[in-house]
Amino acid sequence: MDNLNLLFASVFIIYFIGIVAILVLPKKMSVAMLGLSGATGSLVLFIFAAFVLFRSNPYLLSLWEIRGIGKLSITVDHLSAFFLLVTAIAAMPASVFASTRISKNPQNYNTFIPAIYLSLLVSIILVLVASNVFFFLLSWEVMSIFIYFLVNSGKKEHPGYVMLAIGEAGTLAILVALVLLAQNAGTLSFAGIGANGSHLSARLQWVVFLLSFFGFGIKGGLIPFNFWMPRAYSVTPSAFIPIIAGVTLNLGLYGIIRVNTNLQFISQTGIGVVILITGAITAIIGILYATIEDDFKTVLAHSSIENAGIITTAFGASIIFLSSGYKTAAAMALVAALYHLLNHSVFKTLLFMGSGAIEDATGSRSLNQMGGLLKKMPWTGLFVLIGALSISAMPPFNGFVSEWLILESLLRSVELSSLGVKIAFIIAGALLALTAGLAVTCFIRAFGMSFLGMSRTKPMQKAKEVTKSTMASMAFLALTCLALGVLPTFIIPTINKSVEPLVGKSATVALVPPFFTNHNSKDKLPQKFVSAFHDIGAGVAEDLVPARGLVVMHRGGKANPVIFAMSTSYMFVMMAFLLGLSAVLVWVFVKRKRKVVYLPRWDGGIKELFPEMTYTATGFAQPVRVIFDTILHPEVTNQHESVAEHFRVTIRRKKEEVHLMDRFVLYPVINFTQKLSKILAKMHNGRLNTYAGYALLSILVALIIALAG
Amino acid sequence: MSSWVKKGLKTGIVTTSYPKEDEKTLGITPGFPKSTDCDEVDNEALISLCPMDALYYKNHKVMIESKDCVHCYRCLRNVEKPISWDDGFKWSVLQKKQTGFSKSFSRSIHILVVDAGDCGACLNEVKLLNNPFYNMHRLGFFVTPSPRKADVLLVVGPVSEHLKTALLKAYNAMPTPKKVMAVGACSLSGGVFKESFVVNQGVEKILPVDIQIPGCPPPPLAILEGLLQLVKEKDNG
Amino acid sequence: MLIRKITAEIKTLFSFETEPVIDTASNTLKIYCSHKQTPLVCDWLFNEKEYHFAGLIVEENALLELYYLFVGEGEKGFVNVITADELNTQNFESVSLRVHAVDWYEREAEDLYGVHFKNHPRLGDFILHDDVWQEGINPMRKSFDKDKTLFNRKPRQYYRPRKIVEEEGSFIMPIGPIFSAEAESVHLQLETIGEEIIRAFPRLFYKYRGIEKIAEGKSIENVLLLSERTAGTTAFSHALGFCLAVEKLSNETVPKKAQVLRVFFAEIERIRNHIGTIEAICNSTGLVVAASQVGILEEEMLRLSCILSRHRYFFGLCVVGGLSYECDKSTYKDSVEKIKNIVKELGEIEEFLINTSSFLDRLEEVGVISAAQAKTHDLVGPMARGSGYLNDLRKFQPYLKYDKLKFDISNETEGDGYARLRVLFTEIRESAKILEQVILLMPEGEIFIKMDIKPGTALVGIEAPRGASWHRVKIGENKKLLSYRMLMPSFRNWHGFHVAMEKYAFQDLPIILATLGLSVAENDK
Predict the structure, then answer these.
(1) CATH number at residue B207
(2) What pLDDT digit, counting tens, does each position of A342-364 carry?
(3) Which of A138, A179, A434, C292 has the highest CB neighbour count under 10 A?
(4) Global confidence as pTM
(5) Which of A605, A619, A650 is facing C193, going by the closest CB pair?
């Protein structure tokens, strides 16, 4: 316990030292402090969170007592520990990256921004560990403000207002939800609310759910209120976007999970269906816009929306299973959701780092202007490729494992009885499958247009590779992607530690059978089963690797002994072996005997292939635009300029797509509010007598209410 | 759709059995002038009739420089003693002994057709190679649009200077082993466009030619015979 | 005579320094205009009087003379709008700002003759590719020296494709010059943002052989060889045009039998050429079954041609003074029977094609050229008749015996690929009808007469299978050609290519290209 107290305190001490140092020291050194303090603090945080996760009891710390509000306490239960772990993994390289970016162009940044960065990290930790309604909301607001400062630090005009406005609306919804819960339980502490959580009426569950889901969904990037995300992400400076995209998105999802599994127990299946469908629709809309955007950063922003949708879908499945009593399936779905959340933080941070590196090296974010960067920035290209492979769910990387687990958990809906719910699952599953396909298209396009092909504009030819520290940050995340993909049988039990207290059943038992017979686990498998699998190699490496086994498998009954199974660990080994073998065979049989000649590309025989004759990113995405034309509903303007009507000089066309959520939510809300304001503005007609009349009217109304009440 | 099937069955097989048997149907070839003994013709008059200077005197015979003949028929028509005429189609001239296409190329040769300024007649005859009457696919010849997959470069047309780069690029883009086939009088010597300021007189000036098919235009069977010669499959004739 | 009417009208509208003159020998009205008047007069003739534009002829004498040739519908004779300027400094006004059909002819004149048009917006890289030729060389001028260095040996910095579309993410899709398996060499630049073709620009003249220049100073027989081999698949028609033009400069007439047989062979060539186009259309949509069936018919036509003339493409058949080869009458009768069978088979195939919806889908409403666009570019041939723009010279300016024969011109108005396909089928049927009538008309007699050609200039228009084409010969004292001008139908139709192609998708490109039936060799000369 003491060690944990020490660790926890150290985290904050390191951060505070960092903040003070930044405020005091001259600019050059303060930027280095950002990286140093951020990385070290996150490392200590990682160790702390790991310790807590592997303990059996949550970590409790009481702080001060505030009169009228109660004891401010900090509870790091397993769910919070998991989220702290995710934050730490992402924050370590992100802090180093941020400091490198700032040190390259220090004049573009305010002197105190690094301090705000560290403060943001502190506030994130506080949000994750708060166990009192008041404390939670306070940290939430502080965090929102710090995010706003970071987003705004890029010296653009009014970029974050939409984010701030909708964020405050979200906070208001969260406030009402938590207050309702607290009122029903009679206490402001999360523990008390949680204890009361199973006794809530259906109506209260729905109200709290709707408010918290759509309120936290704003931060989490769920429809219909995620129109702020592309706007905010595109104006955030490239130094800070990794931490914002990789970490703050998780907070919204944390809030949803915390409220709906820990603070209240959902017994209504309908709620789960709403989560499921909202998540699926978010995912498809997100990836659709990601595939057609031309700005690399905006592509990644929409992709974040997509991944948030996927996580939410899995969470919805989990809630449905839980409320119907299928705890094992619920555990699997929730493990899948959290696994995807972890993976998303890692590869999204990596991708944003890559896009930031490209932006700094070439000054451009438009995919239509990039090209041929692989020769100039090979390492960045390699790491962005790994990120793109991970996000497209390619084995053996991490995205594959979590998406596969999510789809498999959706298939568990066969165990349910209600037809309507099953149909909802089918729809969600189909939408997720379509999303996965579009995601591959999107990232082939994003990687191919930026790194491969010819340089389309001059700045591309002057690009230089990034500094070693940036490379180190990206390499760290790339290796993490690989590790999370190749070792799922280690990660699933770890995540299970946070899932089991919420759901009541262990997913490890359901997902990772103990094929390694020397592993001392409480559950044993039937001997015949194990030997059958050992025959096909499931026992390989049992002496080398301290795990239950290396195969992820869900077992069924007698009739259907294996429902699904896969092993990225073995897959990785086989892939490496086969690739190596192929290389050797090619060298022995081909390269030694034949001459390899490198000839210029065949271009039809023209004298020179100019960059404007190669495919652009817009052209690559055109078929997707054509197919989804009704949804995208672009506005096309045409303008021809010609001499004497037939000699055309220019043809100017513009296609503007207005985001679905803008069209259906943002603009109608703005229009309505403006109309309403106009009507209400009639109240302010400037005449003193009217205002006096208003005052009199209010007094009358107050008297009536007081008398009646 | 079934109407096409019925029509196909009704039409039956019209493919020639060349190279197994010789093809003698009327109309398959315009023929070619043959070397004629001096006793049968009036040398000087005959030789002066040719606008391409393709006829010459040698060894008591009037000989033909096959790569110059453009089928104007002046030595055959409205002449008292016309030149002898070959009504066959086996006119291809191998430039050197053919090696290079190993067994793996048998029944699988890919041809890249490059139109280097041709008038349309030679190109049409090349197109007809895959007509149901001739069907070169049954002999293992295929046409490909990409030089990376081609084994034989078939050039038609006098090489116009504007296309020289494209032709050279196509040749260089082909992997070895590769062969060049020049089809038609224009690609052998420039044909009637010999004296043009913008024409290279024949493919030989630019690329090493492996086989020549003279004629203006050579009929599909002549081109097919040339292809078979190129890959060392002899016919019965 | 309608030319007199035009003369009277034009005298009231414009005032000329020199009076317009009617040359009765060649049935031509010559209007001499100043630089400023030329565009106005041409505009009036083309747009108001609905004349067709035949071509632009440049002559280098004491001055550099430009002859804009116009032909009236159904009217015999030509109208020449003539303007002239100094040899080395010119200030011509471009007519193409008002009559767009003249555009390519003026560009050709600028490239080959060095004629300078003051306000033509698109001069430059056209026939003489900028990345091959040295600056300032004009091959068709008398001062051209072919032993000088003509071509650019320096690296290719002199040509960059012109990009007109300004849209985020638009690019130029390059196709060719070596692209498809058996297509002619042409470079297409398609400006696009993905699937849709916004602007299609063909870069032609990769096959430029300089025929008009090498014809200068050659004997008539040798120029006949050149004329046949300009476009081999329509060799007889062009040879016919050349022979008719030369024969105009003689006092004798070609024997009747030869005249009738010339019609016979011209229509056979038309049928065979159209069958070839139909096969290309079937191939482009991937309907290989139909393409094979039509291909069988094409080969049968070629073998028939070989039996009738000893050459599959009629090379060496049409000579000045008649024909060079004849068969006995029964051969001709049998061939007509065979052709009737072929046309019947073709009719059956047409039925099947119309009922194959997957084929028709790709042709209908694709590659639409409206009648107005056909008029602006003054398109010719089946490509124009599919849009309802009719100018078949066999009806409107009959030559040989066409005025005595009964046949119809196809008239479709949709202007899409399917309409053009129907035009091809109709023309084949009508040509078969002509053949049947011709066989009955054929007299006995000679097919050749040796003609004495007097020096002079003659212009003749004939309906080649791809459209109206004019041949103008100028023969000198020594019976050698001073100049030979070929005004080819494909030159006109390639100008209208972009109209058919724009606003359609990549997948429609090969099909539209096939339905237009264009020949690059005929265009590039």
Answers:
(1) 3.40.50.12280
(2) 999 999 999 999 999 998 888 88
(3) C292
(4) 0.86
(5) A619
